[in-house]
Amino acid sequence: MNNKLEVSEIAEAIYTVNRHAKTAPEPQHLYMIKKKAIDQLLEENKAEKIGLHFSNNPRLSNQHSTLLVKVANYYFHVPPSKDDFKKLKHLGSLDNDFRNPKTKMSLSYAKKIIYQYINWKSPKEINQKRVPSYYTPSSLGKMEWPPTKKFYIYYE
């Protein structure tokens, strides 16, 4: 399934997702699929670990490092493992002059590529039970108490 996608196309998709994640109000999902795609590329030897960088955004005023990974012509940062600290060279501070190649790809298309590559299923798809088309839910036990509708009784 994953053989159809070119590494350069996956790299462009990761770049697009990463760019949108930096400005998204809730970027957790975007960063999660970025990391899963990079981990899978590393596992398949289609990406290369370059070294460690100091982060430009220290957490709680504590300096920490990120792992620099090369995928095709793109470079990305992901959280390092303990093993990475033992095996990889520390490159110091980030080079702010370096920029990844620009790409014109929509976020929806980028997500589609990554979902296909990592074989991701949304929680909605997994938890969704098949309901027959003729099924009508019962209204038993669904009475509101106290009633919210007002009934008027007219006396003559």
Oligomer: single chain
Count every beta strand, where a strand is a DSSP E run of 2 or more residues: 3
| Total helical segments | 5
**Overall 3D geometry?**
elongated
Decide which structural class fits the backbone: alpha+beta
What does the radius of gyration come to? 25 Å
The chain-level mean pLDDT equals 80
> Which stretches are poorly predicted, pLDDT < 50 over at least 5 residues?
none
The biggest sheet, with number of strands, parallel, antiparallel or mixed sense and barrel status, is: 3 strands, antiparallel
Helicity level: 25-40%
How far the N terminus sits from the C terminus, by CA atoms, comes to: 76 Å
Structure, described:
By secondary structure, the chain is α+β, with helices and mostly antiparallel strands. The chain is built from 5 helices and 3 strands; from the N terminus they run H-H-E-E-E-H-H-H. A hairpin with a 2-residue loop joins strand 2 and strand 3 (74-78). Helix 1 packs antiparallel against helix 2 (28-43), helix 1 (7-21) crosses helix 4 (107-118) and helix 2 packs across helix 4. The protein is elongated. The protein starts with 6 loop residues before the first helix and ends in a 29-residue tail after the last helix. The model has no long low-confidence stretch (mean pLDDT 80).
Strand and helix map with partners:
Elements: H1 7-21, H2 28-43, E1 48-54, E2 65-71, E3 74-78, H3 82-87, H4 107-118, H5 123-127
Antiparallel strand pairs: 1-2, 2-3
Helix pairs in contact: 1-2, 1-4, 2-4
